[in-house]
Amino acid sequence: MLTTSRTRWQLMLPFYCDARHLQYTPDGHVLVVALDTILYFVDAATGAVLREFDTHHDKAIQHVAVAPSGLQVATASSDRTARLWDMASLECTAVLEGHNEWLRCVAYSPDSFTVATSSFDNTVRLWRAAD
Predict the structure, then answer these.
(1) Phi-psi region of 24 (alpha: psi -120 to 50; beta: other; left: phi over 0)
(2) Rounded to 5, what percent of the chain is helix, strand, coil?
(3) How far is CA 124 from CA 3, 30, 116, in A?
(4) What global pTM score does this model have?
(5) How far apart are CA 37 and CA 27, in angstroms?
(6) Tens digits of residue pLDDT in 22-75
(7) Residue with more model confidence, 96 or 13
């Protein structure tokens, strides 16, 4: 049960947005929040939005994962793709295509070299996170 005395801050979202997924960076200082096709990078201590970034997925982001290295963030979307982003520049470094249905989940291996995706096509795929 969440009580008001335990709430540190609250991020007010646009009325039409649904926060699908969120994850802390490995250092715990930033919370990455997925809303529709947009990623928000939020200061975990204050709730201040540090960056707002449109991923240009064709449909909503269903899941987000931050690499244990802290160098990449991955997004999994209902557009049947996952995308890998350089955390510093927010440049897309890879579009992972091959699932036949929308993606449900994305995860990094502990060494940050492999990305796993799962889909409603009943498959799990493993991908190289970098070449």
Answers:
(1) beta
(2) 0, 50, 50
(3) 38, 28, 7
(4) 0.86
(5) 24
(6) 899 999 999 999 988 999 999 988 888 899 999 999 999 999 999 999 999 999
(7) 96
